[in-house]
Amino acid sequence: MVAKIFSAALKGLESQVIEVEVACNKGLRSFNIVGLGDKAITESKERVSQAIKSIKLSPPQAQAKRILVNLAPADLKKEGSLYDLAIALGYLLASKQVRFNPQGKLILGELALDGSLKPIKGVLSFSFLAQKEGFGEIILPKENAKEAGLVNLQERQRKIKIIGAENLAEVISYLEGKKEIPESKVDPQQLKRNFQKFEIDFGWIKGQLHTKRGLEIAAAGAHNVLLQGPPGTGKTLLAKAIVSILPQPSFEEILELTKIYSIAGLLPKERPFLNQRPFRAPHHTSSEVSLIGGGSPPKPGEITLAHRGILFLDEFPEFHRDVLESLRQPIEEGEIAIQRAKYILTFPAKFTLIAAANPCPCGYFGDPEKECTCTASQIASYRRKLSGPLIDRIDIFCWVPSLKYSDLISPDKEGQSQEIRKKVGRAREIQRERFKKEGILTNSEMKIPQIKKYCQIDSSSQNILRKYVDKGLLSARGYHRVLKVARTIADLEGREKILTDDISEALSYRLREG
Ligand SMILES: Nc1ncnc2c1ncn2[C@@H]1O[C@H](COP(=O)(O)OP(=O)(O)O)[C@@H](O)[C@H]1O
Ligand SMILES: [Mg+2]
User: Fold this and answer.
1) Same domain, residue pair 147 and 234
2) Same domain, 208 and 355
3) Dist CA 43 CA 271 (whole Å)
4) What is the CA radius of gyration of the chain?
5) Which tens digit of pLDDT belongs to each residue from 41-72?
6) Neighbours of ion ligand 2 (CB under 5 A)
């Protein structure tokens, strides 16, 4: 007899249905799995046999039969151990030790030797698949059930029954109709709660008003930023503080973030979702793969883990040139394509870049007090790293100067971050409304036709910009970036019209000092 169970495989962030066929035929005693599995699938044979033995049923090796498991389609490389449960159930069905109807059920889970079910990665992606492909229920490890249940919080979408089980015996009892397992549900209120404790409040950072305002604008419009200045002036501090003013992600964004972090195995243990914007700060010695993703099985890199949040590249010129070069395409496209033998998979990578750099290797070039000790050629080679494909994508340049004593002793302003976060949240809401039909969420994502449509300016603003362009102070690219930033500044005020003041302020973030 041949049994067919439905399971699934990850393909980037998306997934695909896998049919687990088990044939139990007369012939020499054997137990084989085919269909391009990795080592984990071979090991699955051992786990499946042990788990079946543990519940006093007859394992494949005890049958005088030829048992063949086929994972189809064969051309998709299947990785991981999530087929254990499907293989075990397929075998038990084919060998007539259990009876149930596998139609309409998506079955996922790794088995431990004692038959208990171990959690798997990528569950949210699988429940989206189940919804899309018309499955009525998902059976999976109990620890994953809440995460799977997030799909049922979507409005106007078909609901799926989510069954989280502790072990193989429980799954069998359920499938044979001998035991009820209550459906897993997520409390939608939980998604709205802010679990984040911010390390740094904007109010604790002294002086640096221009940069703080620059970061506020960046947070509102998702604009890329470069912070430049001598050592110890608070560049790293300021960059880290930006998380405290980022708006809460929307429900759709929470689903996206949760999918990514689930696949990376980085969801917090106590909560099956991610409802805060990520902040990723890879070290400058990071490899290309850890930054952009890849490997086998393909894992999301830092740029995907920073999706809808911040990618902070501190000591920017210290990063290897090739690594920086590899960021060019994902920044442009908002996603990264990873080539596999037979297909290409993509991970999203819409992040806000914050880069920080000293103006020269010693850090004091252009400082009014301290003398720079670098040679002209050292400075030139350092500068070359600061020009290039990534720097071309910067909307906001901030010069972070040495602090004055009077700044240092100024009092803290408690709760400043919360105030700014509210403003930023409102500005994001305006953008979401504006771009409803454009398929983007923020001003930084506008392309030229959208800039023309949404960033209209009056003649006095045009005159200012003309002066800058004609004097060679502003390139064509810079011109469009000024308009986008000015759009965000107006949005922070909740104002439709872009004023000359907005343009002047946006220009103040184009002029690179030092
Ligand atoms: N503007 C500031 N307000 C308050 N503390 C500051 C400020 N700038 C620097 N500091 C203090 O100095 C330390 C070093 O700052 P850091 O952000 O690492 O500087 P940079 O990255 O520019 O070299 C911080 O951890 C903080 O304690
Ligand atoms: Mg620093």
Assistant:
1) no
2) yes
3) 30
4) 28
5) 778 899 999 999 999 999 998 888 999 999 98
6) 235-236
